[in-house]
Each structure stands twice: as structure tokens, then as C-alpha cells.
Design goal:
With about 90 residues, the chain is mainly α. About 75% of the residues lie in helices and about 0% in strands. It has one domain (about 10-90).
Length: about 90
């Protein structure tokens, strides 16, 4: 007897995990760009391809950790801006 399926079962759970890791890539990329040394400026074409492939792979994992912090920072900024707007329009 099979339990009722849902979004948290089977392929749905895998899709959610893939979506979270993919959504975190820009945030991971931003964190890695902040700590990347300038020595990578002088790479051959093959070096750039390898560099971007490795950076993309690491961005998946760094991004899933960094994403909540960036989202919190954005939401806090929007809330502060709304409070300031309300204060100005009193």
C-alpha cells in the first residue's frame, strides 16, 4: 500500500532542492567574486573556462548558505524604506 504522494515526496522533493540550489547561484557568485584574488585576470581561454566552471559549481553550495542572508538584508532594506517613507509623508 502506497502512502499519498505530495510535493515533499519523490520527484517533487528533488525539484525543490534543485530549485533552491539554483536560486542560490547568484548569491554564491557574489560572495565568491568578493573573495577572488586578482591573479585570475591573466588566464588563457582554457583557464577562464575552467575558472568559470569551478566558480559555478562552488556557487551552488555557497549560494544556498548565503541566500538567506541576502534575502534578509533586502527585506530589511525594504521595510526600513517603507518606514522612512511613512515618516516623511506624515
Amino acid at each position: 500500500m502506497e502512502c499519498g504522494g505530495g510535493i515533499a515526496s519523490g520527484a517533487g522533493a528533488g525539484a525543490i532542492i534543485v530549485a533552491l540550489f539554483t536560486a542560490g547561484v547568484p548569491f554564491g557568485w557574489r560572495v565568491l567574486s568578493a573573495i577572488t584574488p586578482d591573479m585570475f585576470l591573466f588566464l588563457s581561454l582554457a583557464g577562464w573556462i575552467i575558472y568559470f566552471a569551478v566558480k559555478l559549481g562552488i556557487s551552488f553550495f555557497i549560494g544556498i548558505i548565503a541566500m538567506p542572508f541576502y534575502i534578509y538584508k533586502a527585506v530589511k532594506g525594504l521595510k526600513d524604506a517603507q518606514e522612512l517613507d511613512e515618516y516623511i509623508n506624515q
